[in-house]
Amino acid sequence: MLGKSAAAKQVESPNAVREGPSYAAHRKSHCHCIACGNANPASLRLYFDLRPDGSVAGTFKGSSLLQGYPGILHGGIISSLLDAAMTHCLFHHSIEAVTGELIVRFLHPVPCNAQLHIRARLIESRSILHRLESEVLHGNKKLAKATARFMERSNPY
Q1: Is residue 157 a part of any domain in this protein?
Q2: Threshold 0.85, pTM exceeds
Q3: Which of 50, 66, 63 is nearest to 13 (CA)?
Q4: CA 152/CA 150 separation, integer angstroms
Q5: Residue 133 lies in a domain
Q6: If DSSP codes are grouped into helix, strand and coil, which group holds residue 78?
Q7: 97: exposed, middle or buried (C-beta count within 10 Å: 0-12, 13-18, 19+)?
Q8: Can you give the CATH number for the domain in which 65 is found?
Q9: Which domain does 119 fall in, by range?
Q10: Above 80 in pLDDT, residue 119?
């Protein structure tokens, strides 16, 4: 089980938009997720606020338990942060979908104990297919970014 030091901290933002009932329902269907599930004791407890422009933003503070090379956050964790942000962006748009393709670019090493900001936005939706992008920042420096294609779930659980 990951300790609280590995969990994301929810930060209220003056630009945040209140979550709607649809978002709450999607989060509930995702409650055992390793990235954001509140019913999973090992979850990173990620949470994303909706912004007025339709994008989402959240924060995450890792720990040495999540490192790859010494002092550097593991690439799989970084990929999960980027993917989760895009998933939650879709939730805020009342869309429940799965990742079909995820392309990650690691721009700079991500310190494992840094306070990170994660953002995602919906670029395009066509029928049941959605294209998004996300980024991980430390301060104003972009450390990693991703683009992804999601497909709506045809058989939600």
Answers
A1: no
A2: no
A3: 50
A4: 7
A5: yes
A6: helix
A7: buried
A8: 3.10.129.10
A9: 4-152
A10: yes
